[in-house]
Amino acid sequence: xxxxxxxxxxxxxxxxxxxxxxxxxxxxxxxxxxxxxxxxxxxxxxxxxxxxxxxxxxxxxxxxxxxxxxxxxxxxxxxxxxxxxxxxxxxxxxxxxxxxxxxxxxxxxxxxxxxxxxxxxxxxxxxxxxxxxxxxxxxxxxxxxxxxxxxxxxxxxxxxxxxxxxxxxxxxxxxxxxxxxxxxxxxxxxxxxxxxxxxxxxxxxxxxxxxxxxxxxxxxxxxxxxxxxxxxxxxxxxxxxxxxxxxxxxxxxxxxxxxxxxxxxxxxxxxxxxxxxxxxxxxxxxxxxxxxxxxxxxxxxxxxxxxxxxxxxxxxxxxxxxxxxxxxxxxxxxxxxxxxxxxxxxxxxxxxxxxxxxxxxxxxxxxxxxxxxxxxxxxxxxxxxxxxxxxxxxxxxxxxxxxxxxxxxxxxxxxxxxxxxxxxxxxxxxxxxxxxxxxxxxxxxxxxxxxxxxxxxxxxxxxxxxxxxxxxxxxxxxxxxxxxxxxxxxxxxxxxxxxxxxxxxxxxxxxxxxxxxxxxxxxxxxxxxxxxxxxxxxxxxxxxxxxxxxxxxxxxxxxxxxxxxxxxxxxxxxxxxxxxxxxxxxxxxxxxxxxxxxxxxxxxxxxxxx
Length: 610
Ligand code: C2E
Ligand code: MG
Ligand code: MG
Description:
single chain, alpha/beta, Rossmann fold, Alpha-Beta Plaits, TIM Barrel, 3 domains, five-stranded parallel β-sheet, 23 helices, 22 strands, 45% helix, 20% strand, elongated, disordered C terminus, binds ligand C2E, binds magnesium ion
């Protein structure tokens, strides 16, 4: 009923007609502008008798325009003769205002004044009402005007079958979202969704079946959009822009705002696909839609509805022609990225079973004696075409697609078996450090996995160090604290990796049962020249020592850095200066030289892959 008539499109309301006898028109917001309070009182009383309850009154025409803009009434009753500003002038301004242009206006004028009527008509008045006002005439004119306006809105803004907003209304919603992007933040993503089955069904069965499918798709999209919206920052606002639309016989639109990054957009596309692909029951038949989605985002692909829609449509068509992915971005960069990720993700699945993972070891040395006291296990992926892929390129992906558990288990198993073997071969009980990802630590059964692997490998628990990153611990410090105590009970050591890059709370740090702090490489890099970094490194070393933790510096590349660390009292170092991460056999060689032994024959050959 409002200028922004999408207020009506509450999901659920759409398939049934309103159940009560009360006309929804009575909920209309009626505004009156007349300099005579007696007049507005009278009209309000008449309309209240007829069942209307929503009124805005302006007796000062100078305030009327602002009030009109903020209240967006469904109907305006406007007096033509007012002292401060005439009704004509106000009408003129209303028709020139982008937002108010289509508001229906009934003008109040003396019955005999033909010229005024003509002029008001020219200015776009919708109807007339003679003064003095007759009650039944008033009620009828108001009802008819509202009914016509509502019908007109329905016809020109909504699809008759699904009762979804049409493209026209949808575009307005998109533009509104783009305009308030600064306020809401994030990206606006437009999904142009082709459901070819809507068309196929019409050809192979009948129009009625096609319509039923279209309606089912419409309801699913509406539910999806309102769930997405209720989880957003805007959920409490009363914003009503349409988020779902029917754009063609087999094409739908979805627009969402506040999406943080390309990842979020991609995740949404996946979920939309999942929701829409569920089979739809059509009498005796069942249809499983296979939609195609084209996606454009603002601001990257454009800043208005038309451009964004074109981009998304084109992407949907393109995606369908290529037939590789069920969704496609309008922008080539996002597309390449998403395609690359999908391919890599598919290939990563099963990499451990296929024996494509490798574990390299980087020595950790005692700063004072320069002897190897431990090693950090670092995973690599021997990709069939790409060669050795570093962890930075697949660990985060593995976390995202739920593969980190399998990879983490493999790493743990491999590292513990290797270290146990070094010990058995007389290379000493050096400490082996294993990196653990956030999902492994926070949601997996790390305790159980560690118990198992210690049991099977025969490695002594005191040889195992678990590296947890600072940011992962501080994210949920109290949960981390409990989990850390659990792990400590097994007898393993705990280390905080990349220390200095997260935001440690000192009160937690002193309660964490941690054995080692690893100073992040970014601070070591500028030693000894960088004054600030030197001060930071010194502080971390002192902090670690005062909390009874050993301090390790990672990424040591030069002898000057090492000398500086020695002066600052650092305990252990690791870096390219001594060695890069190397395969198992090579590491065993370094280790045996470090402790002055010959290399046992059994370790001469790398035992990887398993
Ligand atoms: P990290 O745990 O901080 O590991 C240290 C990284 O610094 C390693 O990179 C290592 O090769 C590199 N590095 C060591 N010394 C130097 C140096 O002197 N100069 C330079 N420029 N770099 C040095 P890598 O092996 O590429 O691993 C990167 C990150 O991937 C690791 O950072 C760790 O967060 C993660 N990662 C590696 N393996 C695993 C794993 O098995 N599980 C999990 N969850 N994450 C892993
Ligand atoms: Mg590490
Ligand atoms: Mg690190």
